[in-house]
Amino acid sequence: MPELPEVETIKNDLRELVAGSRVERAEVLHSSLVEWPGAEEFVRRLEGVRITGARRRGKHLIIELDSGDALVLQLKIGGQLLLVPPVEEPRKNVMLVLYLDGSRRLFLRDQTEFTRARVLNREELEERLADLGPEPFSGEFSAGCLREKVGSRRAQIKPLLLDQKVVSGIGNIYADEILFGARVHPRRKANTLTEAEWERLHAAIRKNLAAGIEHRGTTVRLYRDVLNRPGGHQHHLRVFERHGEPCPECGGEVARAKVGGRPTHFCPACQPEDGPGDGEALTLL
Ligand SMILES: [Zn+2]
Question: What are phi and psi of 199, to 5 degrees?
Answer without folding.
Answer: -60, -45
